[in-house]
TrEMBL record, chain A:
UniProt-listed InterPro entries: Methylamine_util_MauE
Protein name as it appears in the record: MauE/DoxX family redox-associated membrane protein
Keywords: Membrane, Transmembrane, Transmembrane helix
Keyword flag Membrane: yes
Pfam families named in the record: MauE (PF07291)
């Protein structure tokens, strides 16, 4: 009985920490990209996909990130927020992984922001960790 | 108590918004010029050019930078991280005369 109570408290705190981590991550990266929009747009256009796609990506991505943070804040939309986080982070992780293994004809510089200078390999592992956190968060939220 | 606990994610969001504004500055300074060279001999003024459209910065193994604040890699300040190479895309950009 004691162990079960301890497990429930631990699980609750893990859920809180994952939730706050994802909210901070999506909010900071989304708002940061909008504040320094020209920097981010240039970094996206520097990526190895057509500029026509890059122009849309540069505005849609930060707006989606802020939207995900808002979905995670609200208890009623939290599960949707976790699902969206998994989808978004899966896409990011896949792209970073492809750049890291040099699947494209060139390796571009980073996408600006806080992870610009860490390199694509570290960027990949950070994204993968956040993806796993989002999955765990969804599991816990669904159990509730 | 439960109301306060339920408001914590919103508080985290608001604090992070402030932090994002505080630590991200738009790059709209009119005073920093930016120059790049694909080979070290011909230099291009890319201050008003668009990264990704007029030129690219790609990762490179050599210890060099993509752009500098003067048309020289030795007597100027580098802009951005090291191990990056300048690639000219827009052939209409005229090289500057040194």
């Amino acid at each position: 009985m004691f162990r079960y109570g301890y497990y429930m408290v631990l699980r609750k705190w893990i859920a809180h920490i994952i939730l706050w981590t994802l909210i901070v991550m999506w909010t900071y990266t989304g708002v940061g990209k909008l504040v320094a929009y020209q920097n981010f747009r240039g970094a996206i256009l520097n990526q190895p996909f057509p500029n026509a796609i890059g122009a849309y990506v540069s505005i849609i991505v930060p707006l989606l990130e802020v939207l995900l943070a808002i979905l995670l804040i609200n208890l009623k939309t939290r599960v949707l927020g976790f699902m969206g986080s998994i989808a978004m982070m899966s896409a990011f992780t896949t792209y970073v992984g492809l750049v890291w293994v040099e699947a494209f004809e060139r390796v571009p510089c980073g996408c600006a922001g806080i992870l610009e200078s860490v390199g694509w390999e570290v960027h990949f592992y950070i994204n993968l960790s956040l993806l796993l956190l989002a999955m765990i968060g969804l599991l816990i939220a669904n159990e509730k | 108590m439960n109301t306060i606990k339920n408001r914590v994610p919103l508080l985290v969001f608001i604090l992070t918004v402030f932090a994002a504004f505080a630590f991200n500055m738009p790059n709209n300074s009119p005073f920093q010029n930016e120059f790049g060279s694909p080979d070290g001999s011909e230099w291009y003024d890319v201050t008003s050019a668009q990264l990704g459209q007029d030129y690219l910065c790609v990762e490179d193994e050599e210890a060099q930078h993509c752009t500098y604040d003067q048309p020289s890699s030795t007597m100027s300040n580098p802009i951005g991280d090291i191990e990056r190479r300048f690639v000219l895309l827009n052939e209409d950009l005229e090289p500057i005369e040194l």
